[in-house]
Amino acid sequence: VPVDLHRILEDVVDLSTMAARHKDISLVVDSPTDPVLALGDPDELDRICGNLVSNAVKYTPEGGTVTVTLSRRADRVELSCADTGIGIAPEDLDRLGTEFFRSSNPEAVAQPGTGLGLAIVQRIVERHGGELVVESELGRGSVFRVTLPAA
Ligand code: ATP
Ligand code: MG
């Protein structure tokens, strides 16, 4: 069914606002104001956004920025979640979608987690015929880009 990612993103960001404020992180949303429709399951697309935004806030130190961008690309929509956080080592990038994988980076280990969030994201994205691309640099930050079929 058509799902308005713009609406979903607003709810997800509302949920992360307190955590972000607590760490003095600016949580920025860059999205068209009208609906951005993806084709999929509303709860599952909500989980994608929720996991990516909560990770970004969790793995970004005090005073950083998390920017969530929504855009339309021909027959796709793209959701990107960029942070100025701790980053991910190159050797860890391939393993992010593995269940229970957590980086051994001490700054990441210091945060609580089970290592399931991204495995779930990966699975949902695949089920929707979408794509997940991660770019990251240790100590500088990460960008998670999800493309999904547009409705
Ligand atoms: P949870 O199951 O609660 O989500 P988690 O956050 O540890 O636990 P994932 O969301 O699957 O698990 O993330 C896996 C690992 O990838 C994390 O432990 C962390 O090391 C790394 N990671 C994920 N997102 C980021 C990010 N935005 N910046 C830096 N590292 C990240
Ligand atoms: Mg997580």
TrEMBL record:
Ranges for domain Histidine kinase: 1-151
Subcellular localization, as worded in the UniProt entry: Cell membrane
Superkingdom of the source species: Bacteria
Protein name, per record: histidine kinase
